[in-house]
Amino acid sequence: MISVNDFKTGLTVEVEGDIFTVIDFQHVKPGKGAAFVRSKLKNLRNGNTVERTFRAGESIGRAQIENRAVQYLYNSGNEYSFMDNETFDQFTLEKKQLEWEINFLKENMTVNITSYQGEILGIQMPNNVDLKVVETEPGIKGNTAQGATKNATVETGLTLQVPLFINEGDVLLIDTREGKYVSRA
Fold first, then answer.
1. pLDDT of 142 over the 70 cut
2. Of 85, 101, 12, whose CA–CA distance to 93 is shortest?
């Protein structure tokens, strides 16, 4: 059990049978009445964000989240197969659990799996990944003064904005949190 007074961003808690991570919190001490903690929590099972208010000093359960390294093997239809790097056990996750991460997954890539009491909640991608450009329009020199971009599709199917000097076959460093171009790899 943990007191809501000890909330920190990134803390994982169990509230009414669901697992949440604390995104934001604020201690409020009104002039009249009891103090309370207003918080914004993200459900780790379905990704929904909720706002909850707790009485100051209220205790809630702390969720012990386990992270371990796994290797992405392949996908077959709507199922994505992974292998635990320590035990070599293989398991699959459904496409709906990996909607954003699919944009960056390459075969044999190592990612972290997040689980709670044996239940797999999702995967954590590295902050940046290297992906090869498979399709883009040629950049036309002198098109603009500065900062011009064009669309490019990378090997995983993600389409993003890149500078005009990027060509097909280039390997790019892409930020997995926002899906944006960082630099050439």
1. no
2. 101
